[in-house]
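> example.struct
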């Protein structure tokens, strides 16, 4: 009989072709699987709470895996040894023993992303933000971002030929804010389509730069045509910051 564990981690996505295993590409999932397999001396395959595009970062990511070993979560040396095996740009923070029926992807109720735009050249955040020269109208950007909570179909901001069964998402929060020399877009939803946040950011930036009107933005959302929206913002500025579960979830599913 196997035991199921949730694992919380973070990673800088610069060197990886996203989270999910892909042929002939270096991914976070493949390295985590290998590290856990070496550490636990058994084949381990993780399941992620979602997938990230190549180059996208995660402050908080959740996965789960099964193992024949019990008590992994209570061994104080496991995290230390696991992090020694993993490269410097991947870090595991916690392992939680859960009920065999718990599922990190299907049980999650929301995900939160933050996109970072740098307003000034800064060598300390190069590669971790999108540097845009010029003033942007953040008030108009916030007005169009507020309309996202009224939408359900995000086909206009989804990668073409995606395998998703539906392009419907429920956005709970979407807001731009300025913090020092950064412009931050925070968006929270029950699910996200591939390339969705980057496509939204790229299109809203065109509104902020005056290249696209607020009325035109709303028309784009109604057309359900990816070619009508703006270009995707660079992956380097996007961070998954939170994966959330129902209140009391771990009290119910914790083994």
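> example.seq
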């Amino acid at each position: 009989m196997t035991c199921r564990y949730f694992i919380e981690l973070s990673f800088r996505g610069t060197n990886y072709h996203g989270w999910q295993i892909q042929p002939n590409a270096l991914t976070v999932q493949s390295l985590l699987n290998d590290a856990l397999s070496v550490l636990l001396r058994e084949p381990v395959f993780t399941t992620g709470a979602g997938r990230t595009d190549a180059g996208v970062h995660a402050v908080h990511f959740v996965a789960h895996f099964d193992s024949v070993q019990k008590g992994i979560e209570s061994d104080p040396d496991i995290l230390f040894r696991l992090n020694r095996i993993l490269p410097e740009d991947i870090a595991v923070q916690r392992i939680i023993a859960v009920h065999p029926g718990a599922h990190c992807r299907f049980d999650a109720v929301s995900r939160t992303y933050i996109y970072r735009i740098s307003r000034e050249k800064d060598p300390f955040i190069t590669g971790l933000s999108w540097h845009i020269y010029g003033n942007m109208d953040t008030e108009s950007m916030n007005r169009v971002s507020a309309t996202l909570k009224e939408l359900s179909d995000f086909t206009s901001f989804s990668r073409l030929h995606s395998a998703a069964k539906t392009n419907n998402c429920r956005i709970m929060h979407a807001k731009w804010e300025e913090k020092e020399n950064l412009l931050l877009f925070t968006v929270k939803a029950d699910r996200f389509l591939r390339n969705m946040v980057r496509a939204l950011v790229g299109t809203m930036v065109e509104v902020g730069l005056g290249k696209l009107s607020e009325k035109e933005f709303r028309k784009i959302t109604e057309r359900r045509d990816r070619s009508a929206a703006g270009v995707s913002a660079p992956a380097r500025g996007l961070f998954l910051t939170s994966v959330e579960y129902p209140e009391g979830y771990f009290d119910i599913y914790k083994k």
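> remarks
The mean pLDDT is 93.
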